Amino acid sequence: MMCTIVGCSLALNKGAQRWRPQQGRATRVRPPASRALSDRRLLERSRALAPHRNAPSGSLCPVVRLALLNSAGSTTASRSIITPYRKLTLAYVSGAGTLPTVANGIWLMFDRAGDRGADGTGVGDFLGPASSATDNIVTFAGTTGKVGKDSGIAVSSLAPKASPTFTGTPTGPTAAPGTNTTQLATTGFVKAGFDLKLDSRPNLGVVAQTITDWNNALDNGWYMASAAANAPDGANWFLGFVEAHGSTGYRTQTVHDFVNDTTAADQKLWRRRQAGGAWGGWIKLQWSQAEQDARYVQSSTALLQKFYESAQQTITSGGSLTLAHGLGVKPKLYAAFIQCTTANSGYSVGDEIPINPSLNTTDATAQAISIVPDATNLNVRIGNAAGALKVLNKAGTGFNDITNASWKLVLRAWA
Description:
Blueprint: E1 2-3, E2 26-30, H1 39-48, E3 63-69, E4 75-82, E5 89-94, E6 106-109, E7 136-140, E8 148-154, H2 187-200, E9 209-210, E10 221-226, E11 237-244, E12 251-257, E13 269-275, E14 278-279, E15 283-284, H3 289-295, E16 307-309, E17 313-314, E18 320-324, E19 333-340, E20 352-355, E21 369-373, E22 377-382, E23 390-392, E24 399-401, E25 407-414
Parallel strand pairs: 9-10
Antiparallel strand pairs: 1-3, 2-5, 2-6, 3-4, 7-8, 10-11, 11-12, 12-13, 13-14, 13-15, 16-25, 17-25, 18-22, 19-20, 19-25, 21-22, 23-24
């Protein structure tokens, strides 16, 4: 049987006062020096005293009640100890460690199963640091499981479960390629996914896909071939790309000879298309500015930058006109036109035909027009025949004299 003081009370005749010590704590009880007793005398008195209910009325007798516990923790007996002291001094000393060696002291120790106890050998106990920061996380200090420490990590510094924000270089487990769940995707998982796609589409890889027949280059992407069938220009080495339409059988191929494509003025570039599954022919493209310059006339000076057009003029046989063109220089190019205002010689209203200047090629009749330009004017002279001009009829079957009133004369000049 284990004898443990589990309860202690002090009863005074002037108003009941009770003191219950905290479990798991050692409490020092020191009597006044003038009334001190030895431990032996106190033990003798405790055996002789009756329960506190028999204490003399009116006396100042502190009563200490003892309870005897068996090994299972049940109370088996109790006794009251009546002391003759008028006053007990109670002071909390410590919750751990060994008993201090203080003269004239009586020490009461309180304990329960599972508490660490004064000797620090219990189980399930825990001892914290002398001080810590508010809301910091506690961790173990050592391997006994009995001592804690301030980790220095505040709860507020931890990432929340909902929408956390990580810093540094966070890592995580990499899912198997092809995983399609709510599992997080690491950079390794993403790269593995791209690698799978690139392996299945080599024409989109880091180099162009090699083929042997350009008719087989059907999907979007880059292709290359040497001496491949259906190439645009012989057995050269070609590199090109395909633009595939959403419908089967419709796409465009653009390729160039990157071995012989060395002349700026003759770029080796071709394009063809497939429509309804049928391939068209290759068309050579002009790609560089040098090609454009090599094929088209260039001039270092501006040509024919100014233009003049007269209003409609009345055609008078043997008449003359002086028309100010306003070009500032003598025109380099000029011409006469007649515009039909009333149907004539098969022509309809609004038709316009050019007039051969200065010459009637059918006979000697003066049915013609002459234009003499200068820096200011166009000087015009009209033939004196009744039909001042002769034209090929609209049907192309013969020449006809115009009816002057059915036409208007217009002059144009360029400089």
